[in-house]
Design a protein that fits this description.
Elements (H helix, E strand, L loop, with lengths): L1 H29 L13 H14 L4 H5 L2 E11 L2 H14 L5 E6 L2 E9 L2 H11 L7 E7 L10
Antiparallel strand pairs: 1-3, 1-4, 2-3
Length: 154
């Protein structure tokens, strides 16, 4: 008799837990039904989208916004000598004064990159022109600065 009361004391709560778990799983499985999604958006989003489309179309402000972004630069030097990097930059600036140059340092190398070209064809044209003057020439895609805008008061 003593054994029966021990078993019922142990298995009674366990069987109760198993029963409630089975009921919960059955209820959760039946709750997976298809529904609808309502999208609530701010009406100002449509205004911004129309404004952006207008900027791409033309106008005085379109020139400012459309020139920023990604493009290409020509890398003319990559090495560990800081002095040589600035010498290469000075030598390039003597021959090409209208083109911007950028010196960057990514440990352990200095890199000299030139130009802000929107298309790869423009960068390729400069690369062909520089062949023979510089040894390691590469076209590097990346973020570029916008070209200088001439503001004339006519």
């Amino acid at each position: 008799m003593k054994k029966a009361s021990v078993y019922s004391a142990i298995f009674g709560p366990i069987s109760g837990c198993i029963f409630f778990m089975a009921m919960f799983v059955a209820t959760a499985a039946s709750a997976q039904t298809r529904g609808t999604v309502d999208v609530v958006k701010d009406p100002r989003i449509d205004t911004l989208a129309a404004r952006r489309a207008g900027l791409k179309g033309g106008g005085p402000t379109a020139a400012i916004y459309s020139t920023t972004g990604y493009g290409y630069r020509v890398q003319i030097y990559n090495g560990s000598s800081r002095k040589e990097a600035y010498d290469v930059q000075a030598r390039f600036n003597e021959d090409h004064q209208g083109i911007r140059t950028y010196v960057s340092y990514v440990e352990p190398n200095y890199k000299v990159r030139v130009g802000d070209f929107r298309t790869r064809m423009e960068a390729e044209k400069l690369l062909q022109e520089l062949k023979g003057k510089f040894t390691s020439l590469f076209i590097i895609p990346g973020k570029i600065n916008p070209p200088k805008i001439a503001t004339g008061n006519d």
